[in-house]
Amino acid sequence: MKICLFDPGLENNQGVPSANLGDLIIQEAVTRELNRLFTHGEFINIATHEFPTISHILTATSCPLIFVGGTNLLGSRMDYYKQWKVSLLQKIILRKAILFGVGWERYQVRPNLYTRISLRAALSTKQIHSVRDNYTKEKLESAGIKNVINTACPTMWPFIDMNCQDIPSEKSANVLLMLTDYSQSPELDQKLLELIATKYEKVFVWPQGRGDQKYVSSLVSNLAIPVVMLNHSYSVFNEFINSGVSFDYIGTRLHGGIKCLLAKKRSLIIEIDSRAKEIAKDTNLPTCEREDFPRIAQWIENPSKVEIKMPKDSINRWKSQFSIFNKI
Question: Ranges for the Polysaccharide pyruvyl transferase domain (predicted)?
């Protein structure tokens, strides 16, 4: 059976991977779960970062199932902020797209008329949609999309079978820092760098986004704090995680932090928008407000346990609706 996936891990439809390597973390999780659901599926991947051609759309509609995989593709002004690059006409043609772990881009007002029309046109009315937090669920409901449940982000689904007690509660010798190029706050981020430089033996930095390395380097040069800058590469990140280096994760990158937690690394994700904050409300993901330096210092210095709560029943409910398609 052919299955279409609107893939956040693709920069374009020539197969170039997204420069935001967090998209690759999402892509990895979405692909893993869909392959488990459809063991004999033939997947056709279409980029979400580039407008598809009409040929792409017609190919998608020829598939029994169309998934929109992960990331913060939705918003209240989809006529203006086109995170999911599909035109209104193309959405009308699609008709049956199914959301899989998708989120709302930030705290916003009620979806405008264009957004409500386009979402109702594109999304399936027969299948249940999966979103990654209750805030996104509420926004979709306000747009008239009622067939939606909160399954948390698919990057977090392995927590269901993971014993969080295996994640260290005590401070490590080193720290891995990630900062976000598109949400810069030099004053707060410099303060964070100064804090962690006094608490850890060595500071590593992984630039998840395309501009993260340049941004962190500008902060480091101002403060003369020595750091080890890893390459902007997903394979390098995976190698570092599995290298045996003892480290805590502290940073503003949500999916980098989730990946570290899954690798049993003590982690604190710093909230810069609605995404980490809302997922934390639902799942108990360890997060902290950006300005709360006493809390960050306390977390570093004192033992802390991780107790992730996953919506297992909702995940199973979303999965179970596709059992009939495996018979096709």
Answer: 20-197
